[in-house]
Amino acid sequence: MTPFTIEQNNYLTQDIQAFYHTDFGGAQLPNNPNFLYKLKNDPHHNWTDYRLQEAQQEFLRVLLNDLPEVLRQINKTPLTVCVVPRAKAENSYNPNQLLFKATVRIAINRLGNNFIDGTNYIERHMNTKTTHIRQPMEGYINDGSVPYVGITNATCNISNDVIGKDILLIDDIYTRTVNIDEDAIQSLIDKGANSVSFYAIGKTVYNH
Hints:
Number of strands: 8
Distance between the termini: 23 Å
Largest sheet: 6 strands, mixed
Shape: globular
Strand order of the largest sheet: 1-2-8-7-3-4
Structural class: alpha/beta
CATH class: Alpha Beta
CATH architecture: 3-Layer(aba) Sandwich
CATH topology: Rossmann fold
Strand content: 15-25%
Helix content: 25-40%
Number of domains: 1
Number of helices: 5
């Protein structure tokens, strides 16, 4: 696990302490967290139940190893764990397409009282553009807006339970230029969270 800083920009009013598990550079690269593709379970895949469960177990091992270290470095207890929602409205996914959030919930419940389950505190009610799909896919309508300042508040319901809490916001992949995570962090700050930190499984590798 590696610490980094999410720097303030047009989407975010302050620097944020952040962490990521490993580099994300594509399925062909060694040590890429390829289990994330299975947890998304997008329509162009047809993963078996065994492969989905295998991916969940791999993800769970990562969380159980990393989250206690995140807690130690942030040094705030308890941490309320929220998840950046998927791009489309929550009710448009079946349970096997929401395994990322489900696995985070399992990890929190195993880790004890230092973590509070806030995985349902941010729920998307309006479709947004899926940023990681660059080419049209048969049978998949990639509707909705691309990221803009305030997109989280406009397309999500955010629970009042975040008010006054120290939040750890989790996403699958952090990409600096997309700004979905920055906007989600700012929405939690605006809602009244006491503090927000961030953790991603993968951080996009840039080739310059």
